[in-house]
Sequence to fold (277 residues):
Amino acid sequence: MSASTRGPELLQANAGTLKSRMGTFFPGSHVIFRGHDLHTDLKDMDWVELYVFGITNRRFTKEQLRLMHSIWTYTSYPDVRLWNNRVAALAGSSRSTGNLGIAAALAVSEASIYGRGIDMRAIDFLIRTRRQVDEGGDLSACVREELDTHRSIGGYGRPLVNGDERNQHMLALARELNLDKGSYLRLAFAVEESLSAGRLRMKMNYAGLAAALMADIGFSPREYYLFLFPAFLAGMQPCFIEAADRPEGTLYPVSCADILYEGKSKRTWLKQAAIKG
Fold:
């Protein structure tokens, strides 16, 4: 970008009327959503269909939309021990508001290991690897290079167990919907075979499977990232409600005796007057 496009000329060109190709609200009249009247042209869309249309400006088949619904459904766990659900529950326990607690829980879902960070690594790896293989590259070499660079591969392996309880259900649904024959999904299984033949023996996890399925539907990394924003949402509200229904402050209390402290030993604190003197 040149200096002229970054300076006052750029600001002046955008001063006054806000220009948008996404939508406009006309108070008392109508709302335009990506070139369509929201209340007439798009009135029969369900929420997920509208959500992904807003992200991609594309329409999807009923089979693809059902798969997208299930990608969210299958990963909404109402378990307060999970890192993001814990934030929602602590908000309820401390008597914060529900919206604030859920918003904070969604914010920490950006986590690089368990959340959106690993999802982005998974789809980025599949897209890069397919490009390299299509250009004549060796898949095993691509896998080794990724491991050498990052010491792991996004979408493979799992900290707790080497396997994922969601995959069998998602694959069964993909087969039922005839959405299990895409090139990215085949690549994802080929990567799993390559890893299984090595010493790491890492299996594909849900992040790898979902990334492959959505890449086969045609989602770019940014579109996929935005699509996944509410993926954990349905499991958060139950955690907030349960914690809010319990006595205040009783979620995860820690006894002083349970804290391992290796700092300075017990010492006497000087009074303020003594310090001034």
Q: What stands out?
A: The first strand starts at residue 23 and ends at 26. The CA atoms of residues 5 and 11 lie 9 Å apart.
